[in-house]
From TrEMBL:
It comes from Thermoflavimicrobium daqui. This is Uncharacterized protein.
Amino acid sequence: MHYVESVSIVLLDDMDFKITGKEAQRIYQELNHQDFSSVRIELNEQVIIIPRESIVYIVFRPNRRANRIQNEIDQTWEKVFRLTGVKDDDDADWYVQENITYLGYRKVSDDPKVADLLIRLEYLQEQLESILFEEGEGHSS
């Protein structure tokens, strides 16, 4: 799971926070990549810190559309790497000119399939950005 639509945090005192949008995504990433002692929620220009001991459970609701598109992006990149023999290189700029694929200034393929895959990747990335933009800033309750 790469993207979430919302997160629900239920506390010992039965208080419940439901957070959506970018703030839910931030919390997901923060909690997913570290052992946490507290959860930080930014709400209406205020910051709420909830200690781990006060949390009964946390539920993340996946953003199915965004995750589906991200999986398709990942699979398409794997095809590009397989067809070109290039290893994953996040820093490089890929581009297509007249069905020839370049990585930086280096020609890596003249196979039109690779060019089509890169064009598809651009379309998928735009779709993903549109979905994430639709979510807006999100809110808490």
